[in-house]
Amino acid sequence: MKIDPTSPDLSAQIAKAIRDAIVAGDLIVDERLPSEAELAEQFEVSRATVREALKRLAAQSLIRTQRGAFGGAFVNRLSFEEAYGQQITTSTLLLSMNEVSFDTACEARYALERACAPLCAQRRTADHLATMRAEIHRQGQQGLSDEAFCASDVAFHRALVDGAGNPVLSYQLAGAVEAMQPLMNMITFTARNRSEIIALHTGIADALEARDGAEAERVLERLCACTQSLGSAVLAERARRKTDG
Predict the structure, then answer these.
(1) Is the alpha carbon torsion for 91, 187, 151, 103 positive or negative?
(2) Residue 56: burial class (beta carbons within 10 Å; 0-12, 13-18, 19+)
(3) CA–CA separation, 170 vs 111, rounded Å?
(4) Where do the H-state alpha helices sit in 140-210?
(5) pLDDT digits over 109-120, tens only?
(6) H or E stretch at 72
(7) What is the helix (H) or strand (E) element at residue 235, kind and residue range?
(8) What confidence category does residue 215 fall into, taking pLDDT thresholds of 50, 70 and 90?
(9) Alpha carbon distance 188, 47 (integer Å)
(10) Are 81 and 89 in contact (CB under 8 A)?
(11) What's the sign of the alpha-carbon dihedral 153, 157, 162, 163?
(12) 191, pLDDT greater than 80
């Protein structure tokens, strides 16, 4: 593992070198990393620089530290569940910092979700359907706040994605459902017709219960069109008000 000693951020280089070794399989799960002193000697840097690199790796859940006589830094076994949060955070930051348009986010999210529909129709369990039905019921409750409706909307679509029974898809779509969708909800929640959304959600759940993936895709397409139309109307109205003001 080599680094460029002239780089201004040596700890980032060390973290990358160790991360690359983990990805390549040169460092395996539960293997103990060399000590801070050994790493400092290997990379020809201070122990403080090594310590900062290890903090970066721990923040990414790539390593864990243990105290005691048999302690040190060890390669961690990263689970999909642990990675969900990082995926959501990264997706949220990418969307907000790069000002991804509403239409682009909507197109991406529903394209990914439609890919899950046939798998969900085949593999969904009674629990997945029960979650969807419970969220549909919740969405129809009187006095439900906009924030609670949005949270229920996310939970409904999370169940659809998880119903596909593929942890890789669930991980990849964590950003689409739990990062893109809340951002889209922020734009549309004040203007949308809850009854229309509930009817579309019911259509999706009915199709999945009947194991009809094609119908679930068709209803998702209608939901996508509804969301895009509403978002365009809201953004156009905001632009008009800004111009008038």
Answers:
(1) negative
(2) middle
(3) 14
(4) 146-162, 167-175, 181-188, 194-209
(5) 899 899 999 999
(6) strand 72-75
(7) helix 213-244
(8) very high
(9) 51
(10) no
(11) positive
(12) no
Bridge partners, residue 74, by sequence: 32, 64
C-alpha 208, offset from chain centre = 23
- Measured in residues, the chain has a length of 245
Cα gap 54→75, rounded to integer Å: 11
Distance of CA 95 to the CA centre of its chain: 12
Which tokens belong to 7?
């780089």
Which of the four pLDDT bands, split at 50, 70 and 90, describes residue 125?
Answer: very high
Decide: helix, strand or coil at residue 63: strand
Q: Which residues contact 96 (CB under 8 A, 6 or more apart)?
A: 183
Closest CA to 2 of 30, 23, 25, 21: 21
Q: Which two tokens stand for residue 244?
A: 């008038």
**Mind listing the domains of the chain with CATH numbers?**
10-75 (1.10.10.10), 80-244 (1.20.120.530)
- Biggest CA–CA distance in the chain, Å, is 70
Helices (H), 44-145: 47-59, 80-97, 102-123, 126-139
